[in-house]
Amino acid sequence: MKLKSLTALAATTALCAPMAFAADMANEMTIVSWGGAYSKSQLKAYHEPYSEKTGVTIINDDSSAEAVAKLRAMNEAGNITWDVVDVVAADAMRLCDEGLAMEIDPDTQLAAAPDGTSASEDFGDLLVSECFIPQIVYSTTFGYRTDMVGDTAPTSVCAIFDTDAYPGKRSLEKRPINNMEWALLCDGVAKEDVYDVLATSEGQDQALAKLDTIKDQVVWWSAGADTPQLLADGEVVMGSTYNGRLFSVIEEQKQPVAMLWDAQVFDLDGWIIPAGLSEERKARALDYIMFATDTQRLADQAKYISYGPARASSAPLVGKHADLGIDMAPHMPTDPNNAKNTFLYNYEFWADYRDDLDAKFQAWLAK
């Protein structure tokens, strides 16, 4: 999608400071996210400083996994109860296409970089939708129990399908995204052909047939915190989740868990503002977004979780973990040592095919 480009310096300068009337707006807003270590990082980097600055009370809702369905229902009922929603890029595209998220002009509604670089240039190619404000680059990958894999630790994502070498339960997300791509990769489909194959009924059946080989050994998860807890409790030998959640269980909790970066799936996560808010609520949401996505705030989030900030100007500001004092750069999915074999997520494919493949996947699960 082509983004609007309104880059007049005077307009940018005037609008990049937080709105003066923010403190006069209603003193409560609901922000939707994913929960766990990720929401905690947002609380520390964004919510607490914003509340201190404005007096606005932020109510946290951990419903991002159901954001599309719930926003559709709210729109149908004419009752939008959320103010700002954290979603993955493909969901932002769907919500934008359906008119359920408002369009954002980055150069008048988001802060410029400290050196005056416009927001559209600072975010660059990560502005994948007119309604999406990028926040982080993250990956979905695997963690495994170091004390449950024997003498040979897994090095390939296809270990998830190797129940002979690595017996025990696995955990996978209860949705088709990533699972179907990994299944095709591990069934011999070349990386560059995965989405062409997955666009066909035969390819979809091939992916589900591969997943059938481990179906009775899978614990299905819905929340990002599930796999880290299952690993910490020793209930699964390996499982998929977001790299920041694994960082937490490995580095903060010191559990016997390691990261498997092979075929990690890069993705974007960020904010949308629901369409249909009152002018007062929309102004407050925009004020929060301008504050929470500036250069310093995005860098601050990396103090608490190992996700790469979406702004180019934020990357040089990433330093040490706020509590552990360790350098965060080597724990980012974008670190060269971790990104040797990545799988690039196709946002457009999932924006187009998500509803149909969700239905097919859930029918397969129910068999």
Measured between the Cα atoms of the first and last residue, the distance is 39 Å
| Low-confidence segments | 1-25
Taken in chain order, the helices and strands follow as: HEHEHEHHHEEHHHEHEHEHHEEH
Structural class: alpha/beta
What share of residues are in beta strands?
15-25%
- Count of DSSP-assigned helices: 14
The percentage helix is: 25-40%
Largest sheet: 10 strands, mixed
Please give the radius of gyration in angstroms. Answer: 21 Å
Please, could you describe this protein's structure?
There is one protein chain. With 367 residues, the chain is α/β, with parallel strands linked by helices. 38% of the residues lie in helices and 17% in strands. It contains 14 helices and 10 strands. Strands 1, 2, 3, 4, 5, 6, 7, 8, 9 and 10 form a 10-stranded mixed β-sheet that branches. Strand 1, helix 2 and strand 2 form a beta-alpha-beta unit. The N terminus is likely disordered.
Keywords:
alpha/beta; disordered N terminus; globular; 367 residues; ten-stranded mixed sheet; 14 helices; 10 strands; 17% strand
Q: How is this fold's topology laid out?
A:
Layout: H1 9-16, E1 28-32, H2 36-54, E2 57-61, H3 67-77, E3 84-88, H4 89-97, H5 106-109, H6 119-123, E4 133-145, E5 170-173, H7 179-185, H8 194-198, H9 201-212, E6 218-221, H10 226-232, E7 238-242, H11 243-252, E8 257-272, H12 279-292, H13 295-301, E9 308-309, E10 342-344, H14 347-366
Parallel strand pairs: 1-2, 1-3, 5-6, 5-7, 8-10
Antiparallel strand pairs: 3-8, 4-7, 4-8, 4-9
